[in-house]
Design brief:
The structure holds 2 protein chains of 2 kinds.
Chain A (H helix, E strand, L loop, with lengths): L6 E8 L2 E10 L4 H10 L7 E12 L1 H16 L3 E5 L6 H10 L15 H38 L6 H11 L4 H25 L6 H39 L2 H8 L3 H40 L3 H9 L3 H28 L5 H31 L3
Parallel strand pairs in A: 2-3, 3-4
Antiparallel strand pairs in A: 1-2
Chain B lengths: L7 E12 L2 E12 L3 E6 L5 H8 L7 E6 L2 E2 L5 H8 L2 E4 L11 H12 L4 H14 L16 H12 L6 E5 L7 H18 L2 E5 L3 H7 L2 E6 L2 E5 L1 H6 L3 H8 L1 H11 L3 H10 L1
Parallel strand pairs in B: 3-8, 3-9, 6-7, 7-8
Antiparallel strand pairs in B: 1-2, 1-4, 4-5, 9-10
Helix pairs in contact in B: 3-4, 3-5, 4-5, 6-7, 7-10, 9-10, 10-11
Classes of the chains: A alpha/beta, B alpha/beta.
Chain lengths: 379, 272
Amino acid sequence: MASVVAASLVEKEEPGGFVLAAAGEWLVATAAELDRRLRAVQVPSGKRVTLDLTGIDRLDTAGAWLLLRTEHDLTTRGNAVEMRNLRPNFEPLIDQVRAAAIIAPARHPRPAYHTIAGFIARIGEVTLALIARAYSILGFFGVVSTTALRLALHPRRVGMTAIVAQMEQTGVNALPIVGLLTFLIGVVIAYQGADYLRFYGLESYTVQLTAASILRELGVLLTAIIIAGRSGSAFTAQIGTMRVNEEIDAMRTIGLDPVEVLVLPRVYALMLTLPMLTLFANFMGIFGGGLMAWGVLGISIPEFFTHLSTISHWSFWIGMIKSPFFAIIIASIGCYEGFQVAGSAESVGRLTTLSVVEAIFLVIVTDAGFSIFFSSLRI
Amino acid sequence: MPDPPGEPIIRVRGLVNRFGAETVHDGLDLDVFRGEVLGVVGGSGSGKSVLLRTIVGLNRPVAGNVEVFGSNILTMSDDAQREIEKHWGVLFQDGALFSSLTVAQNIEVPLKEYYDMPLRLMDEIAAFKVGIVGLPDGTGEKYPSQLSGGMRKRAGLARALALDPEIVFLDEPTAGLDPIAAGEFDILIRDLRSSLGLTVFMVTHDLDSLFAICDRVAVLVDKKIRVGTLEQMLQDDHPWIHSYFHGPRGRAAVLSKTGQPEKEKMRAAVSV
């Protein structure tokens, strides 16, 4: 800032030694300029130096610090330093800063990995952290499973209200977005597919192409990804916020099991809603593809159903079978990351992001596993 | 920003704050004078924090005027507002430190924002601010999550003091601290007030703080404010004010201040 520097510093050499005459407003606003000038002061060592403070009109802690630092620096260079003519009303301020000024400036945090060795060490650390994380997630799956088994013996303790409430939030409220996106994907696949198939004169197979890809893969996968982003993240944020508020600890002291009260209703709810959403997504996707086929290729409604009936019913079931597994993954990861929240609200945000990324990653890995499994069964 | 002596540094007139159907302040007037420590008390929900937030411009009132350093906070330009913000510091309840920055970096944020300073000088300033608020050596390198509640408040105060403000606003500075830490915080505020010449606007529930450091007390009752010295407040016969100062805790605070029975000590309490 190019503010007017209302402070001054004059260097004089007098018979008795050096005199630094400070004057004006020694404030935080003038500190940068004064700092520059003070650092430029050249005083040979072994002199008597007088800091003449007669002219200082206003002083704050920043100005006081500069005076004290100068006194200290000159003294360590072997000069005899004396402060003179400080106004008495500034003395408490100088004393206050002097008492505080023993502290060494804090080091700024630095990125720890500058070197190649550091980079390799980082890879190792991240790998170990990943393994530890996978182990811990597996442990959480175990806790959830045993709690579910225990609860199966006491079905009355299952929180039906919580399950229904979660179903509304994760299912009913997700219908518009899931329906719209899968409808559009159906349109896109039919349109792109027809383009290529027309090249071979097979454009009438567009219906089969669209329906098979949506039923087997895209319907369930898209729904799972949308729900991971929409509900998995919500689970992490809800449970994480409860962790920050110590609500989870409060539950434990009352004798409520957080896994039973918070995790299982979410897992059950999602296991019920994700297949239903998948069914809806399949319908909307095929509807979009059919609309496209009718509009662009002129495939009539009876023709459309004829094409559709050639698709193996397994295509439909493969998609539906996968959906509850994806639901377990999304709900468990969402809840797991929520429980990982510790301390500050900042970690809620970080873990919410992580929860979505991990859930989508695991959903796709599992989907690949299913593909291998089903192809080995030749269906 | 010099004021003629005796002129209020903060002047609130006819303040009305309403949230939905709930009226919090209804025609509230308040003056804060340079160099004083004003304690603001009131029951839960009486609008103490709302008053603080209104004065520092975080809350827009329904009606009324707020002048700080003689200029109207509500109508001033953004540039004028920035100029004023250089001259006040605010300590929020839990410190409100930026969690992604170290304590030293937190203190440097206002310095960086307002002044073009070499990094080295900023580090030096941050270091002695850490010392001024009584934090141990090395605290500057720590992150807020590594600090206890009391240390976070001190670090928040260090950030509020970064620009050597003329006014500091403290929102319940001793809430959540143990009595020893709270007492130390009172002493810290008192020392800083006398050495730095601060004006302190302090929202508090803490009767001991009121008796230890406040020159005047402002009590929020009936959507308005009553201001006076402690002696005047002790004699006020408004039911809420009476039970506040003459309840068991109020009496204990008066007694502990002077070691004398209530009647005589009222005079002594004022001179504190």
